[in-house]
What we know:
The protein has 226 residues and is of the alpha+beta class. The chain is built from four helices and eleven strands; from the N terminus they run ααααβββββββββββ. It has two domains: 2-92; 106-218, Glucose Permease (Domain IIA), CATH 2.70.70.
Amino acid sequence: MYKKSYPKYKSILSYLKRRYHYKRILNRIIAALIILIIILLLKLLNNSFSNNIIQIIYNGINYEFSLKKDGKALVTYGRKLLTLPEKTLFVFNLNNSVKYPPPIEGVVYNPFGETIYLNGKSTFNDGVDIIPYEGKEPIAIKDGVVKSIEDRGAKGYFVTIEHEDFSTVYGYLVSIYVEKGEDIKAGTKIGTLGTNKDGNKYLHFQTIVNGSPVDPLKYIDFKGKF
């Protein structure tokens, strides 16, 4: 009598396991959709506060599931639909790469890439703009040589450092601690930042690869800096 009932119980358990598994996958996909919708709404607001929130989402979310399995097609479609800077979907990129410490401790308020406004106009940021924590100064992220120091008037000084396989640019400086041609080590202070008319200090930071600007967040690890 009892032996005959075992297959029935096994069938029920198998059904419950499959149902739980599919439900968990569905919840993951729904979570990804919600995140994409939130990012889209924040980009439509298009102000420093919303950009800052996007950056916090990017740094703070750490999923334990694999979107490569559960939502690769969803992410691909989302990239085309939203036409957002690559940074906003970087949380879904599971490829590992070498990361360097940030050029300054602070909050990225203006990300890399194109921003499309509601009126159809667009702007392109060739780096990231960072609001530093109080008292912090920009530092070299890697050993290198000071390639150039440019005075851009109201925008301040821009220092370009040439590294082995890429270059970095530090902008909006009011004074410089380094000299052109100087060999510097990672962690060397570059200069001091000026204060903008809104009362904040900003660092404009670029990474240049093969002569073209790329998203600094591919190279810099801001995790835990917020």
